[in-house]
Amino acid sequence: MNHRVSGWLALGAATVCACGSVEVATPDGGPGGGDGGAISVASITPATGATKVGVLATIRIELTGAVDAASVTPAHVHLTNVPSFDFGAGIPAYGVTYDDVAHAITITPSIALGRETSYRVDVDGLTAADQPVAAATATFSTVVNPTLYYADSTSYVSYEHDADGHMTASVTHTAGPDATLGTADDGIARIGVRIPTATGVESVQHTGAGPDGMWRTADDVITGRSAYVIGASGYEISRNYTAGPDGIWATADDTVASFLVIDHDAQHRAIAFKSYDAGPDGLALTADDKVTSYSTDAFSDDWNRVAISYSGPGADGVWFNGDDKFNGITRYEFDGRGALTALTSLAAGADGLPATADDVTTSQWALRDDDHGQSVRLSIVTAAGADGHWGTADDEVGGYYQTTYDAQGNELEYSRWTLGINGIPYDADDASNYREIHDPSR
After folding, report:
1. DSSP readout, 81-139?
2. Disulfide: which of 67, 150, 264, 270 matches 436 by Cβ 3.0-4.6 Å?
3. Any alpha helices (H) in 127-183, and if so which ranges?
């Protein structure tokens, strides 16, 4: 899912990405052809290794001849996401169609693919005249569409990226002596550096220029360091460090202060988030670790998801059993395409139990999507209206976020709005107090 809420997913347009195709070898080692031999997959577009694929792309599979139409189903032609170092999106619903004249199969996602996400196409189980067609696979990654900067009323952050659009650094700026943001005398308050590692990515936070008074020199003051590790299903653990006995950050004796472990299901969906203190030994995943909180996620066949969080062990003092101290519920609601439509926060009702019929809504985020399933407005609902029902037209809105996109589905601007004097949301007197600007070219 996407970085903000749960993955801005959107509808796939009927556009083939211009990012090349891959020839798929037949068992004899050469590309398949219409020479009377066995039918095979000739190419898949996007190709294996393709990057910066548009989020509205469709996937096209070229065949060397006719296959049995009955075998062209999502069970035999399917799309999955591939774990990566970036928090990516899930899998939208998609359709599979077969053109028996062009001998081509098209996969059309019902909503947009996720930004900065890797996907895998598998063709396995097709038949031609009741004979099996050799399996074929391709993997590709989507456009990063990175944030260039964001700004609020007191500061703004500019971002730096590598050639592929992946963030390498963030710089937080504050107003200088003229008290005006975006002018030549602005100062730097913080620099965050993001460093790829053999197992994931590391983030180091600098909050001072050091004795020399110059940023980005060896004596910059480090006040935070985190490391993220990827496993077979994506992010599996993040570690937050403190300086070790030498008192110097980012050296070999740094100790782990806390860490987060993420469990996944077979579909690479995160199903549990477990937070720990590392204990006296300063190491993660050892016997003296102490659980501080956790949440579990349950998914239903209709895309909906319920996350339940716990803040302490129950009366028995043991975590991860039935009497753990309940903290809250978040319910994620999706439409039939897999597009997120609402997030609802709930508290346990009179029975004191989570996820039962008497749970009480405490707040809600309601999303309005465009034709591609991309969220164009996220409203923060603070109370049910006069009718006493949440999710109806008279709900009380305390603020909202808006997102704009280009024709290719790339995010251009994300902004936060507060209500104006008249208290009416989405009105001309509303004020924006936060903006993100994105680069659609990477």
Report:
1. EE--SS----PPPEEEEEETTTTEEEEEESSPPPTT-EEEEEE-S-EETTEEPPPEEEE
2. 150
3. none
First-to-last alpha carbon distance for the chain, in angstroms, is 19
Residues 415-439: tens digit of each pLDDT = 999 999 999 999 999 999 999 999 9
Any residues with CB less than 8 A from the CB of 60 and at least 6 apart, and which? 16, 21, 44, 45, 104, 105, 106, 107
Q: What is the mean pLDDT of residues 332-343?
A: 87
Closest CA to 187 of 201, 206, 172: 172
- Convert the pLDDT of each residue in 51-84 to its tens digit: 999 999 999 999 999 999 999 999 999 998 876 5
Q: Tell me whether residue 228 is in a domain.
A: no
**Is there a domain that residue 88 lies in?**
yes
pTM > 0.85 = no
Indicate whether 332 pLDDT > 80. Answer: yes
Within a domain: 135: yes
Domain range enclosing 121? 15-142
Residue 71 lies in a domain: yes
Q: Tell which residue, 403, 339, 330, 335, has the closest CA to residue 363.
A: 330
CATH of the domain at 133: 2.60.40.1220
Q: How far apart are CA 141 and CA 164, in angstroms?
A: 11
